[in-house]
């Protein structure tokens, strides 16, 4: 992640429609698991610390964060997220079975392909038996955009690949769905046709917050998806993929 993009994220993460809507969808996954179950959590690849602080505020979790970018940790400290440190998610500086919950928010996709499995093994190692893992990744290579290039995104997932990796680590997937589905056809036309015709250069998609009416309307689209997923529907396609998995509890 470039310093310029970390700055963009820090400025827009509270209000930008994509972040607001994705937080609403994420809560649909996490509320049934974490409400009333305070424990220790890790935001693996915590960026500017916003999601880690949300875990603390919403669920009372004692949250830690790591990010490989020193600037990201500086932003965490600016947000007064003190339990954050510089480290790679492929070599976490924690003992086995440390955390009750681990969240990974759009981090795997910026790793080189050869490091994905190493990161997932580290998540499994530091997760306690009975603990929960939440992963969000970008989905479908066909939806790769100029913003994807700007953020040095390396790989976009489809569900069978991610679910297979989790199952191979003896993590039981309890719930998954694609998300940001309603806007995916528009995104395909924009990313694969319009941007190519314009020969648009790589650019941040979150540098500027849209006008309030549009920002609120787009947020509403994602919140509608959140409500649908909350009723048990699983989207078969979308720009993001989310999954919750549990590490089996020890048998006594």
Question: Could you walk me through the main structural features you see in this protein, from its secondary elements to its overall organization?
Answer:
This protein is of the alpha/beta class and 252 residues long. It has a single domain, classed as Vaccinia Virus protein VP39 (Rossmann fold, 3-Layer(aba) Sandwich), CATH 3.40.50. The chain is 42% helix and 19% strand. The protein has nine helices and seven strands. The protein has a seven-stranded mixed beta sheet, with helices on both faces. The radius of gyration is 17 Å and the shape is globular. The protein starts with a helix and ends in a 6-residue tail after the last strand.
Quickly describe the structure.
The chain has 252 residues and is an alpha/beta fold.
Lay out the secondary structure:
Elements: H1 3-12, H2 17-34, E1 40-44, H3 50-59, E2 62-67, H4 70-78, E3 84-86, E4 99-105, H5 116-126, E5 127-138, H6 146-150, H7 159-168, E6 172-179, H8 184-198, H9 212-230, E7 240-246
Parallel strand pairs: 1-2, 1-4, 2-3, 4-5
Antiparallel strand pairs: 5-7, 6-7
Helix pairs in contact: 2-9
Number of strands: 7
Helix content: 40-55%
Q: What spatial order of strands do you see in the largest sheet?
A: 3-2-1-4-5-7-6
The separation of the N and C termini measures 44 Å
Number of helices: 9
The fraction of residues in strands falls at: 15-25%
Properties at a glance:
alpha/beta; 252 residues; seven-stranded mixed β-sheet; single chain; 7 strands; Rossmann fold; 42% helix
């Amino acid at each position: 992640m470039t310093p310029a993009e970390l700055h963009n994220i820090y400025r827009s993460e509270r209000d930008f429609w994509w972040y607001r809507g994705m937080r609403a969808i994420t809560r649909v996954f996490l509320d049934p698991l974490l409400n009333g179950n305070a424990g220790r959590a890790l935001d693996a690849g915590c960026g500017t610390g916003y999601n880690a602080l949300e875990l603390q505020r919403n669920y009372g979790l004692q949250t830690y964060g790591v990010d490989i970018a020193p600037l990201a940790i500086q932003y965490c400290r600016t947000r007064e997220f003190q339990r954050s440190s510089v480290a790679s998610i492929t070599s976490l500086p924690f003992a086995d079975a440390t955390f009750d919950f681990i969240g990974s928010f759009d981090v795997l996709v910026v790793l080189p392909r050869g490091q994905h499995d190493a990161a997932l093994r580290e998540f499994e190692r530091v997760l306690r038996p009975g603990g929960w893992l939440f992963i969000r990744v970008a989905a479908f290579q066909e939806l790769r955009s100029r913003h994807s290039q700007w953020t040095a995104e390396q790989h976009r997932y489809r569900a069978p690949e991610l679910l297979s990796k989790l199952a191979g680590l003896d993590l039981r997937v309890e719930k998954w769905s694609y998300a940001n589905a309603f806007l995916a056809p528009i995104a395909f036309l924009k990313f694969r046709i319009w941007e190519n015709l314009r020969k648009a250069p790589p650019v941040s998609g979150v540098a500027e917050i849209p006008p309030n009416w549009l920002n609120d309307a787009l947020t509403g689209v994602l919140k509608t998806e959140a409500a649908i997923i909350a009723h048990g529907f699983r989207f078969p396609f979308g720009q993001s993929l989310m999954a919750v998995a549990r590490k089996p509890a020890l048998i006594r």
